[in-house]
Amino acid sequence: MADNLYTVLSFIGTWMLYVFPLYQGTLEMSEQQRIISKFNNKDKKFLKVSNWYWLLPFFKIHLEKKRAIEILKDSTINERDFKELLSFFDKSLVWIYVSLAGLLNGLVSTHELVEMFTMRSQTLIIIGIDILMVLIGIVHAYYRVTDKRIKKELTKIKKMLGK
Question: I want to staple 91 with a disulfide (CB 3.0 to 4.6 A). Which of 28, 37, 62, 117 is the partner?
Fold first, then answer.
């Protein structure tokens, strides 16, 4: 019985090690985008990188970095600002790597969980759970940095403060 409990706890904890670093990486990227917008020449349009690329986080970061460099080429930027931007890219990339490690561990954890509840490995169930967990992580990270959610949270805080 205790082994079953530990397997379930391991499954939950391991997938949290995927979801929350992905969220942190998303936060870093949104902060970087806020800073980049200060340098964006309003006369020129730089296409935004689609949020669908979060399905491939490494590619999303690569495209965002490429876009940022194009924006910075078009503006004057001092060394301090450039270092700050580089720091955001590095932080978001590190968090994505940590999230990837959590994802890989989550795959193993899902296999162990399904094996515990069935007599043999159920490949389709494992794949289904893994896809569901990956999507939960992406949706969670994306939702938490949306303007809609941020405004909602600010409204709650203002009400609590009586403003």
Answer: 28
Helix residue ranges, H only, 41-122: 57-73, 79-117
Provide the sign of the torsion angle of the four alpha carbons 64, 67, 68, 69, taken in this order.
Answer: positive
* Rounded CA separation 68/90 (Å): 13
For residue 163, pLDDT over 80 is answered with no
38-66 confidence digits (pLDDT tens): 766 665 677 788 877 877 777 877 888 78
Q: How many helices (H) and strands (E) does the chain have?
A: 5, 0
Q: Which two tokens stand for residue 92?
A: 């978001």
More confident residue, 128 or 25: 128
Q: How far apart are CA 66 and CA 61, in angstroms?
A: 9
| Cα gap 26→48, rounded to integer Å | 15
